[in-house]
């Protein structure tokens, strides 16, 4: 067995959903003091255990609401799991919500330094790489324009260009290869592939099964926060395709009450 880059051991992530609407902070604190706040528990992840070997490229598959983005945020350290443990080995570059750390009043150039600092890059490193970042983003003269005037695609392209200027040990991608036009998406995918040669470990969320098959050697399926399959991409992809086909059948026949069940044999991916 190879060296483990990521290990999750019985990880669960719980959110408390408020039952009442609070219209202001004052209203919230009044209800809090009166102990009149009630919540519903929602487990976005439940009892998830798996390990990823160094150099593996794992596609994270699942329908909407399966817990894919939550899983990546737990691994990246954005969320602390409610239960269980996460072990990571190596510098992580999480590409989750591209451009989320931008200041809209700053220009694109100024935000390169700001966003780079958020990602842990030094000023000298950014100065060395800034021309490369600007060229890859294809923003041209817009790099001197305040980000508040950017489209969402332009912000995402700039964020992607900054985040991928390094070669991390672990790369976490959440739908980031869908940003920009077709030309930029192809360019972004080529950029990610160029990082594979350094032995980077990749976790990749995408709604495109074909894209996952192109980029990943392994895959997992999440279903309502639970891990239902994990293994080689050639074994997991047909299972996920069957899930998609089943959902399409249900949408075409709304009167059918019983959903098609998929039997999945789980392998033991935990090391004792």
Could you please describe the fold and organization of this structure?
The structure is a single chain. Strands 5-6-7-3-8-9 form a 6-stranded mixed sheet, with helices on both faces. Helices cover 35% and strands 25% of the residues. The chain is built from 8 helices and 9 strands. Residues 253-272 have low confidence and may be disordered. The protein is of the alpha/beta class and 272 residues long.
In short:
Helices cover 35% and strands 25% of the residues.
The oligomeric state of the chains shown is single chain
Instruction: Let me know the number of strands.
Output: 9
Distance between the termini: 13 Å
Low-confidence spans: 253-272
Helix/strand-derived category reads: alpha/beta
Helix and strand succession?
EHEEHEEHHHEHEHEEH
Q: What is the CA-based Rg, rounded?
A: 21 Å
Mind summarizing the main beta sheet?
A: 6 strands, mixed
Widest sheet: strand ordering: 5-6-7-3-8-9
Structure characteristics:
272 residues; alpha/beta; 6-stranded mixed β-sheet; 3-stranded antiparallel β-sheet; 35% helix; 25% strand; globular
